[in-house]
């Protein structure tokens, strides 16, 4: 089809049914767009940050692109067992108890947990435990360990696996519900939890090792929201674990200081791995595939923890094209409106380094970098986190982009009402393909919102660096400044080819190695220990 004919096809398909973007001022436009960019967040009133939880020790944001790439050899945690972090509680010198339970002794286990002494180890035998309520732990120095987590789809424990089945538990209960200092859970599976599989809140020195959380059916709105869910905690390790079929996020670490998330697998969730309002996170050697969105790093407004210093390395984030199955009514946030095919997005985050990861075959985009004003346009609402709405200092280097991404936004089924940003991006690139032969969204899409108001004299005002990455053969542009405000303004002005052309004209594309995104990272280096 000739390009003029393609442009006519675009006009008929998209502009005759314009996106629901009004002529409203910038704040309203951003609020509308924000309906889809927010992933999973804390879902209950008791998840809101504690007023007494201080945000301490935060280094100042680095400014421009001076300095070297951070993180490669700066405080990288050892690949071995639990980190040697400071401890608020120790069992040394205290009486220690060891209890053992096997399938069929569920009531005995519940009775023991309800009267649990500090410094107790609970051994769970191989096989299947059936529970009608959550396992609630409110003691310190507790270890729970089974015989093994089994394999994906294994609903019944075997000779070398322990499955805790919550299929018949009371509605709206978690699998584990933990508040503890020095808590370790390992080598078991949590099956069909009604709400969150493994919920750990307001805890310190948390070690989650070789855990599997799973729901039996794929793509069900009625599945529990979160698989592995440590929140409002300090010194958290999540390693060698798996999460499947969560209707919100498979592995989530939120409102937390100091975390390591390594060697995990997150598949078939709405969101694979999420790092939210967290300081000092080390996310390495994970696999996030076949989710709606693979990996998310973001801050939310109203939280005193200003997320910073996030190191993302050696992860595989590919093929995250699962249709979004989060409940529109019951979702904890607007995760139900995230477009399928989002590899990674970064929102209201700073000092994020990504190296030696692999992205590919994510239908919408490999990486999106967004402003917090897209979800909350009133800067005052961000005061608790020291006005942490801007994204700043994002270094993406020495990664591999295998190709196949950005070619079918939202799996080719954009929904302007439920997923407006996906529809907007899809419409713009449909026009770009028709009129300019641009076949897909670039590897990195920046919304162009920060700083606010934007200083047009600054070509790269938030210091996004994109260097030394391995790109598909024949790759041209790799980064796009989408200029969301200007694009939305044109498309909301009326369903005409001229407005589509004007919207496309507001977007700017850059090849790797070209200014202004050929910067060298940020300083000081990441300090994640």
From TrEMBL:
Where is the signal peptide, in residue numbers? Answer: 1-42
* Any single Pfam family the record assigns to this protein: Beta_helix
* Region of interest called Disordered, as start-end residue ranges on this chain: 44-87
Q: Which InterPro entries does the UniProt entry name for this protein?
A: Beta_helix, Para_beta_helix_rpt-2, PbH1, Pectin_lyas_fold, Pectin_lyase_fold/virulence, SO_2930-like_dom
Annotated organism of origin: Myxococcus xanthus (strain DK1622)
Q: Which SUPFAM superfamilies match?
A: Pectin lyase-like
**Right handed beta helix domain spans which residues?**
183-331
Provide this UniProt record's keywords sorted from A to Z. Signal
UniProt KW Signal keyword: yes
- NCBIfam families registered for this protein in UniProt: beta_helix_1, para_beta_helix
| Protein name as annotated | Right handed beta helix domain-containing protein
User: In which residue ranges is the amino acid composition biased (Low complexity)?
Assistant: 55-82
- Record field: transmembrane: none
């Amino acid at each position: 089809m000739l390009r003029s004919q393609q442009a006519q096809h675009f006009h008929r398909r998209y502009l005759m049914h314009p996106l629901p973007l009004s002529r409203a001022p910038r704040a309203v436009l951003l609020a509308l767009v924000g309906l889809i960019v927010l992933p999973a967040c804390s879902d209950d009133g008791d998840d809101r940050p504690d007023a007494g939880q201080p945000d301490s020790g935060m280094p100042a944001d680095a400014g421009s692109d001076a300095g070297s790439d951070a993180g490669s050899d700066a405080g990288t945690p050892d690949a071995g067992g639990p980190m040697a972090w400071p401890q608020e509680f120790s069992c040394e010198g205290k009486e220690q108890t060891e209890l053992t339970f096997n399938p069929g002794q569920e009531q005995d286990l519940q009775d023991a947990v309800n009267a649990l002494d500090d410094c107790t180890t609970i051994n769970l035998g191989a096989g299947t435990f059936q529970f009608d309520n959550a396992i609630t732990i409110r003691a310190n120095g507790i270890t729970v360990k089974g015989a093994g987590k089994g394999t994906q789809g294994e609903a019944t424990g075997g000779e070398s696996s322990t499955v805790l089945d919550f299929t018949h538990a009371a509605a709206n209960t978690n699998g584990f519900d933990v508040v503890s200092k020095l808590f370790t859970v390992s080598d078991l599976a949590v099956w069909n939890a009604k709400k969150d599989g493994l919920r750990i809140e307001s805890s310190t020195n948390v070690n989650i090792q070789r855990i599997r959380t799973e729901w039996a059916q794929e793509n069900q709105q009625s599945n529990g929201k979160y698989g592995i869910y440590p929140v409002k905690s300090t010194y958290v390790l999540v390693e060698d674990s798996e999460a499947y079929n969560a209707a919100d996020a498979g592995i989530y670490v939120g409102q937390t200081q100091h975390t390591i998330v390594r060697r995990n697998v997150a598949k078939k969730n709405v969101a694979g791995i999420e790092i939210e309002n967290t300081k000092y996170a080390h996310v390495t050697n994970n696999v996030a595939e076949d989710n709606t969105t693979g990996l998310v790093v973001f801050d939310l407004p109203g939280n005193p923890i200003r997320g910073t210093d996030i190191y993302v390395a050696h992860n595989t984030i590919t093929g995250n094209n699962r249709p979004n199955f989060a409940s529109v009514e019951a979702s904890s946030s607007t995760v139900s409106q995230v477009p399928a095919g989002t590899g990674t997005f970064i929102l209201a985050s700073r000092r994020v380094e990504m190296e030696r990861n692999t992205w590919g075959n994510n239908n919408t985009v490999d990486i999106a970098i967004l402003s917090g004003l897209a979800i909350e346009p009133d800067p005052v609402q961000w005061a608790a986190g020291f006005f942490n709405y801007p994204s700043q200092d994002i270094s993406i280097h020495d990664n591999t982009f295998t190709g196949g991404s950005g070619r079918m936004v939202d799996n080719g089924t954009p929904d302007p009402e439920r997923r407006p940003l996906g529809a907007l991006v899809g419409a713009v690139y449909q026009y770009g393909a028709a009129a300019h032969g641009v076949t897909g969204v670039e590897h990195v899409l920046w919304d162009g919102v920060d700083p606010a108001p934007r200083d047009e004299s600054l070509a790269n005002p938030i210091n996004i660096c994109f260097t030394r990455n391995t790109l598909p053969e024949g790759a041209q542009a790799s980064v796009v400044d989408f200029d969301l405000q200007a694009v939305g303004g044109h498309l909301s002005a009326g369903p005409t080819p001229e407005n589509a052309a004007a919207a496309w004209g507001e977007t700017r594309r850059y090849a790797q190695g070209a200014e202004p995104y050929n910067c060298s990272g940020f300083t000081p280096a990441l300090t994640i220990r």
